[in-house]
Amino acid sequence: MPLAAYELLGALLFALGAMGVVLRANALSMLISVELMLNAVNLTFVAAARQYGQLDGQVISFFVIAVAAAEVGVGLAIVIDVARRHTTVDVDAASELRG
Amino acid sequence: MTLALVVAAPLAGAIFLALFGGYLGRRTSGTIAAGAIVVSFGAAAAMAPVLLARGGSIDAPIARWLPIPGADFHLVLDLTMLAVVLMITAVSALIAIYSIGYLAGDRGIQRYFAALDLFVAAMLLIAVASNLLLLFAGWELVGLCSYLLIGHWRGRPAAAAAAVKAFVINRIGDAAFLVGIFLVITGQGTVEIASIGQLSITTSVLILGGALAKSAQVPLHTWLPDAMEGPTPVSALIHAATMVTAGVVLLIRMSGPLSDDVLLVAAIIGAITALGAATVATAQTDLKRVLAWSTISQVGLMFTAAGVGAIFAALFHLVSHALFKASLFLGAGSVLHATQDEIDIRRLGGMARRTPWTAAGFVAGALGLAAIPPAAGFFSKEAIAAAALDRPYLLALILLTSAVSAFYAARLVTLVFLTSPRSDRASSAHEPGAVMLLPLVGLALGTMTLGVAVAAGAIDLGVGALADAPPWLGALSLALAVAAVLAGWLLYRGGPRDETVLALARSGYGIDALYGRTAVPLFEAIARALELGAERTNGMVLDLVARTAMSASSAARRVQGGYLRAYETLLLAGAVALLAYWSIR
Q1: Is residue A82 less than 8 Å (CB to CB) from chain B?
Q2: B570 touches chain A (CB under 8 A)
């Protein structure tokens, strides 16, 4: 399979994730969409590493996985707090900081 | 570099006291201030034998300053100015010592001594600067220090007003002087006093304007009587050593380049000022104001002498006036000190019995003022009269001034020291301590001996000796003086008199009130208009800034809608835009 196929799949997944982040109002769905975006990037890194025979891409994808775990940890904590305050996980409910 | 030390010692004293005076005791700071001036005196005295032996002048180039020919940090001292420098340092040192006693209880005494040392340094700079710009620096410093010292008691509104008045009126003269210096630069191409050639009438008039304001001559004299609001030693300093004589020093140093016509104008202004101020002094009831008007009058005589080219007479009178006027002021200070500031001569009286040493010092000064031998004033006034022999109108004014001066000197002594005490304060007065009496006695001795020494040729002032005056002149001026003193004594031995006829003279012929009704309101109106204009402009600018900021922020707050997804969309759009920009580039 050529590299371009992996990159096309990565871009597609990234766009789907981005749309999910922007369009979904449910905080959990948004977190899942962010994971999708991160893993789309991971896919392109790993594919490129394989193609060019270098390990850099794989190393970076490990970093991304570690960061994603931390991100989910922080994100879920925020979601729980939002749920406690507003009895819902709809992010549009948490709009006290509007100017 | 002895010459540099002359100016540097008091300057260093001023800087040291300004920085560390607060950590020192009152007596210590006074001792340092007086010591710095004594060092300066010693340095000047050390140069005297050299100058007397070979004449010429001592040069001390210190550093380059401005890219104008002559405008360097460069000091020069000749015999003429040596006399002035010795006089300034000697009199100022005595006044500084006197101040230790006079201001013993004053809280701002370190500030006072710092300003006093700076004052002396500035005045010395005027005497020894080699060029007009450096001289002008000293000139401005003198103005600043007079402001600081006249307003020393800053809690008093009258003192603050007097300080501002002295400063503002001096600024008028300073502005003229500065423009005159600019004209010297463009016309002569140099500011070095020794190499300035003949000056035009305009330039001379402008420089004379500076001298008139600093020396309190008509029409810029109104600041000096008000300057009595400062502590009495400050008055002594301003009148005797450091300030009003600056104009005379300038005329003496510039007598070569200044136009002869303008110098004659200076002589006439001086003579008119002398007589006018002397008549005003006869009507004053405030002890210090009598002395203030007498200074204006005596400096007028110096202007007359310098104006007719009699440098020796001007210099001689400058030195002898410094001695007798300092005696008078320190004597007046002792009287005030002894009577808890009873300044009205109608309420004093009989002080000779209560304070004999003060009375002796004051009377020595008064003899100088009245020009009665052996006081120095007799010889120096005769020198001035002799110089004006070929201009009868000036001679008449000078002789009249001398007579009037003798009259009010006698009036002052009679009312303050003779007669009987007319208030409780006067009858319970006590002689001040030695730290105040010794400087007074020193000055009184100087007054009594210097004149004889100069007249006999024992002391050389460096610009010739006493001209051979016809004997009738000395006899006439002595007869006038004695007659006036007798008249003053006879009129006032019974105590104060009704002086309502002299109301016009008491007000200084209404000149100050005239300024108060014309020039002062005019400038106040201009200042108010400027203030109002500034307020309007400020308001407009501030309004514009505020309105711009408000409309910008209300546009920006629409972005902050509070919806997370809107922010995300913007974030994404931003990222896409950046990517697009980079890929296109």
Answers
A1: no
A2: no
* Closest by Cα among B297, B258, B303, B305 to B280: B297
What pLDDT was estimated at residue B457? 65
**How sure is the predictor about B521, in pLDDT bands with cuts at 50, 70 and 90?**
confident
Measured in angstroms, the CA of B541 and the nearest CA of chain A are apart by 28
B371 by Cβ neighbours in 10 Å (0-12 / 13-18 / 19+) ranks as buried
Contacts of A99 in chain B (CB under 8 A): 556-562
Contact B333, B277 (CB under 8 A): no
Phi, psi of B310 (to 5 degrees): -90, 75
Neighbouring C-beta atoms of residue B385, cutoff 10 Å: 26
Helix, strand, coil percent values for chain A (each to nearest 5): 80, 0, 15
Task: Give me the interface pTM, i.e. the ipTM.
Answer: 0.82
Calculate the dihedral angle through the C-alpha atoms of B238, B242, B248, B254, rounding to the nearest 10 degrees.
-150
Count of other CB atoms within 10 angstroms of residue B200 = 13
Q: What is the 3-state secondary structure (H, E, C) of B290-338?
A: HHHHHHHHHHHHHHHHHHCCCHHHHHHHHHHHHHHHHHHHHHHHHHHHH
Smallest CA-to-CA distance from B87 within B401, B366, B403, B319 is with B319
Tell me the domains of chain A and their CATH numbers. 3-88 (1.10.287.3510)
Please tell me what DSSP assigns to residue B154. Answer: T
Q: Which residue has tokens 């766009």?
A: A15
Closest-CA residue of B relative to A18 is B572
What is the DSSP track for B426-494? HHT-----HHHHHHHHHHHHHHHHHHHHHHTTSS--SS-------HHHHHHHHHHHHHHHHHHHHHHTT
Residue-wise pLDDT for B376-426, tens only, equals: 888 888 888 888 888 888 888 888 999 899 988 888 888 888 877 777 777
B561 touches chain A (CB under 8 A): yes
| Cα–Cα distance measured from residue B85 to residue B82, given in angstroms and rounded to the nearest whole number | 5
Q: Which one of A32-41, B73-82, B286-295, B446-455 scores highest in mean pLDDT? A: A32-41
Query: Chain A contacts of B569, Cβ < 8 Å?
Result: 22
- Residue B532 confidence (pLDDT) above 80: yes
Kindly calculate the radius of gyration of chain B based on its CA atoms and give it in whole angstroms. Answer: 29
All residues of chain B having their beta carbon less than 8 Å from the beta carbon of residue A28 are none
- Average pLDDT value for residue range B472-490: 85
Structure token digits, residue A53: 């025979």
- Residue pair B93/B34 in contact (Cβ under 8 Å)? The answer is yes
CB contact under 8 A, B559 and A96: no
CA distance A90 to chain B (A): 10
Which of the four pLDDT bands, split at 50, 70 and 90, describes residue B467?
Answer: low
Both tokens assigned to B126: 């005027």
pLDDT at residue B454 tops 80: no
Contacts for B146 with CB less than 8 Å, ≥ 6 apart? B119, B163, B166, B167, B170, B227, B238, B243
Can you state the percent helix, strand and coil of chain B, rounding each to 5? 75, 5, 20
Q: Which residues pair with B60 in a beta bridge?
A: B75
